[in-house]
Amino acid sequence: MKRRQALAALGALGGGGAIVTGTGAFTSVEANRDLSVQVADDSNALLRMAAAGEGNDEYVTTNGGELGINLTGSNPTDAGGQGVNADATTVIADLFEVQNQGTQAVDVEVTPLSFVDTGNGDTLIVLVVPQTGFPSVTLGTGDTETYSLVIDAFPGGGDLQVTDTLTVTGEAT
Length: 173
Hints:
There is one protein chain. The chain is mainly β. The chain contains one helix and ten strands. The strands form three sheets. It has a five-stranded antiparallel beta sheet with strand order 1-4-9-7-6, with no helix packed on it. It has a three-stranded antiparallel beta sheet with strand order 8-5-10, with no helix packed on it. The N and C termini lie far apart (63 Å). The mean pLDDT is 85.
């Protein structure tokens, strides 16, 4: 019987020694590493935002490297256009695009997708319409989503205007 007790005590002592010495794991590490971050214009960033191409690029502006959309008299077209028609629906297809220039797939969402201004019985509605994904799209590396605008001014549109901000959100999948 004493032999069994001695073996049990020896086994317990050996097991306890293994617990005390551990398996090489650790609870904390602090290490200094280099970090380099650069802010780029929208057209050169990891999530690129730019005019979609020929034809409608006059409506897309760049201010301080940031993309904007301007359909007002402060941004007349080469032909002299200074806004949208009253009591009409205007579609500007393929206006701007968002491209994933990063290293992994990204869920992209543009919000809000609608803007409304009303007054004196008139209404102005602006809709942002993604080409393929609604309301968001997953872009693989190098993939691009193109956005269009639909503007409806009714019954006349009056002196209404929409001055607001689009938010483009990209989140790695």
